[in-house]
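My main concern about presentation is that the manuscript never shows what a single data entry looks like. Each protein is reduced to its one-letter sequence and a matching series of backbone shape codes. For the editor and my fellow referees, an illustration may be useful. For illustration, here is how one protein appears when written out as sequence plus structure tokens:
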Amino acid sequence: MKPFSPQLVYFEPGALEYPLGKTLKEKFEKMDVEIRETTSHNQVRNIPGDNDLQKYRNAKSTLVVGVRKTLKFDTSKPSAEYAIPLATGCMGHCHYCYLQTTLGDKPYIRTYVNLDEIFESADKYIKERGDEITRFEAACTSDIVGIDHLTHSLKKTIEHIGKTENGRLRFVTKYNHVDHLLDAKHNGNTRFRFSVNSDHVIKSFEPGTSSFLERIEAAGKVAKADYPLGFIVAPLILHEDWEAGYLDLFERLEATLPHYAKKDLTFEMIQHRFTKTAKRVIQKRYPKSKLEMNEEERKYKWGKYGRGKYVYKDDEATTLRETIQSYIERFFPEAKIEYFT
């Protein structure tokens, strides 16, 4: 698929005080993209559109260039100690995405230009943990690869973490636009992960993303550039003939992935989950979606912050985990399974 190109770009005035902000303004002026000004990347209110659905879709093609003022990194996912805030939002239209509710009425894409300040904060976190490895997740609130051909923020981050002894960087993507990242001096400190799924899930619920084969071709390039490689199989969905669908996924993955990409391979498994709020938002934004969200057929699981979500019932989750794990062990016996959640 073609790389993302915004239809509309907003700049915070403060963003133009940074070299990356100036570079991006010059770039978008040459691209003849409409440029507007906003007081804050959190206060973009006049997205074009005659109704909420049009405004939502237009927001997905709007880029906001701002300054990340909050530099206290959140504790991240099971895959990392901290989230490193390079961007927020995504141009993809994955029906199930948790950003539907996390971003609420701000679904536009934000990129942050104060990279030196972000790196300084990352260095402090690394120093605080002493001799321990400190892992940063760069894709908690965005698909950073999807915009990095424009910003190169991720490339700069890869090279910064590459200079550290105990820092590690991780991110996941559904996009194949990786060519500019292949010569980054990562020094093995960045694990490059791709999100994969059954053909049914990709075609039904992941519009606006690269195809399975495009992702695997990109994974081969990444492995050839000596990045540690990983795959996140998520969200695992119990769709019709799901066992055959996921078996086909692993058969194609094993057949397509170059042999050198199979060393030091990791897999992460995440079952489909949703909240009541997410269900309302998804049904409003994707009214024709066939994504199953029946609370009565799910288990309610409390989170650590007192908020819960609907996941598969224990017996279904166990069957799902054991089945996918057996496929990984069959096709990639040397790979490490990091977690199932």
